[in-house]
Known about the structure:
By secondary structure, this protein is an all-alpha fold. It has helices at 13-22, 34-48, 53-58, 71-82, 93-115, 123-144, 151-156. It has a domain at 64-156. The protein starts with 12 loop residues before the first helix and ends with a helix.
Amino acid sequence: MNDKPLIPPSPSEDDYVRQVSEAQPLELLSETDPVALFDQWLAEALAREPNDADFVTAQPHVPPAHDRLSRKSVRALVERAFKGKLADRELTPRDYDRLTAAVMRLQSASRSLRRGDESRVSPAVLDRRRRAVRSALDDIETITGVPPSQLGDVLASDED
């Protein structure tokens, strides 16, 4: 068995002061330093983004209460809308849960696209919002087997 301690003892105060006084100064941070890059990004973002409190507060981040549906309500709506309308499959409870999540993501992403003035939104943000809509639509197609362009036909069919 090795009697050497895993953690070395702390230096005495005198040794610590001596080590600090003899230490070489740290080199300056490079151009690729993450803190410097963040500072640069923040300065650019502040220069581009509107600094208008009225504009920011006028943008609704949360829809009014009468516009919001609970997950339970969306699930009931999705189940009612798709039950028995898919020719090649019957959705399982897990499918309905996944479909509910995709519909809620689609609703949120489409609201996000409609909410702001596109001229004030950076191309990267606009692209991210569009990809979120596309992703939700792709998930709905994967779950139901129905392409987005045909959802209206499927949902309008039958005796609804």
